[in-house]
Amino acid sequence: MFSLNPQNSTPLVMQIVEGFRGVIQDGSLRPGSKAPSIRQFAHAHKVSVFTVVDAYDRLVAQGYFASRPHSGFFVRQRPVSDIEAPGQGPNFNFDSIWYLRRIFENRALRMKPGCGWLPGDWLFQDGVRRSLRSLAAEDVDLGGYGEPKGYPPLRQLVRDLLAEQEIAVSSEQVLLTQGSSQAMDLVARRLVRSGDVVLVDEPGYPNLLFSLRFLGARLIGVPRTATGYDLLALERLVIEHQPKIFFTQPRLQSPTGSIAQLAHLHRVMQLADKHKFLVVENDINADLDPEPRPSLASLDQLNRVIYIGSFSKTISPNIRVGYLAANPDLLEELAQLKMIAGLTSSEFTERLAHGALLDGRWRKHVKGLRERLARAHEAVAARLLKTGFEIFTEPKAGIFLWARHPSIPDSAVLAYKAAEQDILLGPGHLFSPNLQPSAWLRFNVAFSDDPAIMAFLEDQCQSGLMT
User: Fold this and answer.
1) Where does 2-70 have alpha helices with state H?
2) What residue ranges define each of the domains in the chain, with the CATH number in brackets?
3) Count of Cβ atoms closer than 10 Å to residue 69 Cβ
4) I need a surface site. Which of 11, 250, 309, 459 has the fewest CB within 10 A?
5) Bridge partners, 66 (sequence order)
6) Contact criterion met (CB below 8 Å) for 404 and 440
7) Are 403 and 390 within 8 A, CB to CB?
8) Residue 412, pLDDT score
9) Among 370, 281, 348, 362, CA closest to 315
10) Does residue 458 have a pLDDT over 70?
């Protein structure tokens, strides 16, 4: 079929992708044909299973393969319009849930510096237990469904928390959701149609990027900087593409950890007002920020901004309680869409979150969590710098550091080797709007303190095997 060359400067993942693309395009492998299984290909070519998994996932994302549960991978029939002209790059099409599988299939790995959640003992477990005992004592009625917009007392509490951030809303402008992911999905499904131009952070939030691809949006990446956005690039992209909406995470952004300065927030809103696009502000890390800061929503007061928050980073991701706030008309439409998609969210978990937030130890827990993360940032950044990594920015807050090493041109190669050593890394291509190979890695500072992780990184970076 085709051969691989381990001595080639092109990473093995890309050799596999390009090899299959070549035999599909020249007709050697026809639509409907079954591709070799992952293990068969890995054994035949003497490469890691993880390398083949990533190559096949990229071929699915690019529209060359289709994944069929329990059957394997098959060559996909591609419309003529999807086939790139000579000299052009691949047309990235999303037709599977491959990304979600990739994120969650490796939770069993012992070391998780690339994951997106906090360790259980960093969360408000005691507060959740106390809230659970209180709910049991109240003999809560578990029959029927909850309110369409969510548990009213929690919506009122969210209103008060937003008021502390100088975002003035009524509780009727707050919609509770099953985590921030559902909130972003509701907004995307209500506002984005196939072919719409949508601005996103680059690098950006993977769940959102793949949701937007699924809807057929044309993703345009706005480059992040250590202080927020590349404002010249942002203005140029807005003028050139006339976007419908901009999904962004100004504060403690995933994966870079960067925080947009006030001047950058003002410029975003000036461009939104002038060019008539909406802004979706993902602010799920607000509670982790030790500094009070303005948000896009506080500047705009929900005229053009839709604000999304969550309690997953501070209480528990398992209770799946998030929220969004928007102008009244749009909020009603989103509430209807929520009902259509899944009736109501869980009043039980919303009551659980409400009880935890009212707990007298809640604010002390948040303060302690911020301090613990600051210490972890200092320690992990020092180790990475000592190992020769370049760090994008050092926020000393939030969960993530974004870093790269000069000997690692494609961080996915390192991620496969790490998985074989029981380590889950966060390779940069997952955060790219176009799934392009990247040297960057996302490090979760709360999971990066194991000496075995840094020992592995030092060994790999010194070995020169990353080409």
Assistant:
1) 12-25, 38-45, 49-61
2) 12-96 (1.10.10.10), 125-358 (3.40.640.10), 367-463 (3.90.1150.10)
3) 6
4) 459
5) 74
6) yes
7) yes
8) 84
9) 362
10) yes
Burial-class residue 72 by CB neighbours within 10 Å (0-12, 13-18, 19+): middle
* Cα–Cα–Cα angle for 44, 48, 50, rounded to 5 degrees: 125
CB 411 within 8 A of CB 425: yes
On whether the CB atoms of residues 67 and 96 are closer than 8 A, the answer is yes
Nearest to 433 by CA among 116, 200, 125, 161: 200
Q: How far apart are CA 342 and CA 234, in angstroms?
A: 36
Note the pTM of the prediction, 2 decimals: 0.78
| CA 355 centroid distance within chain | 28
Residue 330 amino acid letter = L
Enter the tokens of residue 336. Answer: 């209807």
Q: What is the model's pLDDT at position 232? A: 97
b/e code 339-378 from CB counts within 10 Å (16+ = b): eeeeebbbbebbbbbbbbbebeebeebbeebbeebbebbe
- Other CB atoms within 10 A of residue 7 CB: 6
In sequence order, what DSSP letters do the residues of 119-131 get, joined into one string? Answer: -GGGS-HHHHHHH
Q: For position 463, what pLDDT does the model report?
A: 75
Tell me which H or E stretch contains 371: helix 362-386
